[in-house]
Request: fold
Amino acid sequence: MCDKPILHYLNGRGRMESIRWLLASSGVEFEEQFFETKEDFEKLLNNGDLMFQQVPMVEMDGMKLVQTKAIISYIAEKYDMYGKDQKERAYIDMFFEGTYDLMVLLLQMPFMTEPEKEDQRVLIKQKTLKRYFPVYEEVLRKQALKKQDYLVGNKLSLADVHLLETILAVEEVHPDILHDNNFPNLQAFKARMSALPTIKKFLEPGSKRKPVADEKYVNTVKKVFLS
Ligand code: GSN
Reply:
């Protein structure tokens, strides 16, 4: 019997990566069971382990949790990353949903054709600059005036962890986006967050953080889910 959460997914980012980020940032060790073939996935399905025949699935506390956002909420609440009251939680949810919407655009990209990828790169830049990053920059500017380092209250939350994950993912597509577009508070946030011990460790090579999807991973996903 394993006390650590067990994450069931492919050996790649996808919808599981934010769950990995949240657990790692909370200092929680976890195990992973990867599947690589349709047969492995079907085994989980046939065992009745997947409520909606979908992954991510996380085994923890005697449950087989599915639905990414439900999993994220459970972990955030359990490890005190979900604010101190209902209002803080509402803001954490709003900030998380914003970065999640941007992250979906990033996660789709490896599965596109080259011309589609180019359009998506442009779309990501436009949404990042016009819709998302200015919001977080302004919130962090106001928080800095109150000598507060995080998006909500004065405590690390799910919203901060997901913002850092998203900043780093956007930078993989547009490396100079913070520097070239005058986001000093986001830059300072990125540096501060990356230096937190649990996050620093997760960012180091050899951690359970997954690389950006390559061709092999894309083919595995297609083989498992689309064949
Ligand atoms: O957010 C969630 O966890 C669900 N609302 C969606 C989960 C989902 O779509 N999972 C995919 C694989 S991960 N990539 O998106 C999945 O299990 N697809 C198989 C299927 O038959 O839907």
